[in-house]
Amino acid sequence: MLTLLLIVLAIVGLLVVMRREAGAPAALAVFGVLGLVGLLFDAEIIGGLLLLGAAAVAVAGLPALRRKWLTPRLFATFKKVAPKVSATERTALEAGSVSWDGELFSGKPQWEKLLAFKDDGLRDDEKAFLANQCAKAAGMCNAWDIAQERADLPQQLWDYLKKEGFFGMIIPKEYGGLGFSAKAQSMVLQKLSVNETLMVTVGVPNSLGPGELLLKYGTQEQKDHYLPRLSDGREIPCFGLTGPRAGSDATSLPDTGVVCKQTINGEEVIGLRLNFEKRWITLAPIATVVGLAFRLFDPEKLLGDEEDRGITLALIPRDTDGMEIGRRHHPIGSPFMNGPIIGKDVFVPLDTIIGGPDMIGQGWRMLVECLSIGRCITLPSGATGTARYALGWSGGFTRVRRQFNVPVAEMEGVQEPLARMTALAYISQATVYQTANMIDHGEKPAVPSAILKSQLTEFQRVLLSDAMDVHGGKAVTLGPRNYLGIGYSANPVAITVEGANIMTRNLMIFGQGAIRCHPYVLEELAAKDANDMQAFDKAFFGHAGLIFGNAARAFTLGFGIGKASVPFDGPAAAYAQDIARLSAGFGLCADAAMASLGSALKKREMISARLGDVLSNLYLTSMVLKQWQAGSKVEGEEALLHYSCRFLLQRAEQAFVEIFDNLPNRALGKTLNAVVMPTGRRWNKPHDDLARDIAKRVSTHSALRTKLLENTWDADDGEQRNPLARYNALLVDYDRAEAIYRTVNKAYAKGELPQTALHPEARVEAGLEKGLINEEDADFMRTFEAEVLEMLTVDDFAYDAFAKNKSTLIEHNGKPAVAPKPEEENVK
């Protein structure tokens, strides 16, 4: 009995020591004390074994002993097997900052660090800009007009964007810009996402482009000249990075600059001769100034002893001799300005280098540091804004679209995608807002930028597909009335640009985070590079303690033992506690994958991607909880919180299962499964009851729908009609209309109305004649049903409308198709 008791106490004591990462002395005390108890009370065998364990812990764990024999051997082995980090990888790893992502990597997230990012909201001028300028700009857009008729924004909209400073949101007021916070910048782009061409046009100059690069790295002379001109639209910028052979692998630039001398106005000048071919450059066709990335060489060593000077950035005026610019690409689904730039023997002076000669060779670092913020904002904000509009349109449409005498929003086949859309919109809003809030507190989130870009644009892909499904024929028939179809077709652009999602998910999220965010890996690699054995010893054994700690935390939390302390109450608490459990499991699996696969993990992209999926879903859930904690709640929001968190945590657990099943070392996979999920999976997909409740609220005039659609253009006061405002107005009156529908439909089913009353309008008139409804109700329904029919109607065109070359038109019936005169076209 005593032997069994000592074994149990040893296991419990060891788990406590491991969970607290108390170190070798505490483990030594557990083994030593229990071993002595065994020897003193006639349990010599277990007592001896425990004392042997204590001796092993002392020899391997106490710094004074291990550094004499164990650490040198480990250090020598580590130097042989540790992955080599290239200069470009190191630059990427050192860029940006580590914040909440590092807490999740640690396996023991300290929630107070996340909640410490207080939200001060928006300034009054930012709120006014959203309410006024953004609404006016959105009201000038019609997707069909922009995509099919103009292939451009209207001239008056371009003029308005320049006049109101849309292109200078990130530029300080001292240079004539708006000086907006990251949150305000994100909110502006969300509101402008009513049209994807508008959002991209405004977003790009405020993201990765000359403006941000000049702010951070430009000389004072460059700032004074360009920033005011960028702020008021006198200069339209673009940035040339990608090309035919340099897309996702942007470090392999084939574009070159050569330091040389050239005589200008009789004076010999040192400058750069550039040769480049860039593609997919947004705003290039209309840009007045081009930011350019290239590899700089100095074969004559005019600037120093090095010949290869590395990636460098320059700012080149449009009219520079030798540069070809102005042609357009045709981005799928959207005519935003995008095109190639080609340069042959383009000579520019040294002062065109952003930051001047001192910044030669610093281009990759400059780009990575800027991208860590821009990638958190532009495309994630666009995806979030798209989610708001698509959800608002879909909820309204499914409520007023009736089939089988009921709104299709009452059908469970429609409720399922509506609820999913709502959750994706809710998660996106929380994530992009809270991450922007971190940026406003000085963070430069490198790994979260990859999470937001890939995850939120993938959400956009799912959400738009769901929106198309529930709209049916309304959305697949293009024309001025179709507010959804063109944006749906443009979605692949967001998936592809700023780091294609395939690359971002498979290589960047975990690949960068495993070193950048891990508490010890970067220190271990630095110790290797410095050949510092003492620093390695400290980092390595700290790392070992973390591994044991995460194993103990994951295992005990899996049984519900010793739940993590979290600063949440109510429904959020359980989800925060489970993030702590899964974070410990993630930290353990990350270390296991790195240890078992070593440098081969770079090539095992599917495993790396699944580890990234775990981190991504934990990060997204954390942002939802932070938003819930900080914001005001409305009726019905708790159901949405449950749906969103269960959706994300179920995805995280699914990623774990796929990791366990696919690790090459099968014994390791099974062991991890037993440690991380000792009682099996905890989270299932959200329950149908939640889906029904959420779908009902977003398809009716509810507090939840109103909250989710905040910061959209929702007033019918623009130059173009606003479908969202029209749906909102219909939903305000819907309850009254539904009661009348029920009255006349019930009478029709009983045979009390003529069988020829097949349309709602006919039944209303028949019901009025029979005295089932009064004249006031009939008038109301005439107006209501006319507006419903308008929202359900699709466009039609003349027979020859789509043939650019009319001579190719086939007269299928042997005679020209009858086409109405232009003024008779039913195109609105």
From TrEMBL:
Family, per entry: Belongs to the acyl-CoA dehydrogenase family.
Protein name: Acyl-coenzyme A dehydrogenase
Domain of life: Bacteria
Biological process terms in GO annotation: fatty acid beta-oxidation using acyl-CoA dehydrogenase
GO CC terms, sorted: cytoplasm
Keywords: FAD, Flavoprotein, Oxidoreductase
Acyl-CoA dehydrogenase/oxidase N-terminal domain span: 122-233
Domain annotation Acyl-CoA dehydrogenase C-terminal bacterial-type: ranges: 515-797
Enzyme Commission number: 1.3.8.7, 1.3.8.8
Catalytic activity: a long-chain 2,3-saturated fatty acyl-CoA + oxidized [electron-transfer flavoprotein] + H(+) = a long-chain (2E)-enoyl-CoA + reduced [electron-transfer flavoprotein]; a medium-chain 2,3-saturated fatty acyl-CoA + oxidized [electron-transfer flavoprotein] + H(+) = a medium-chain (2E)-enoyl-CoA + reduced [electron-transfer flavoprotein]
MF term (GO), any: medium-chain fatty acyl-CoA dehydrogenase activity
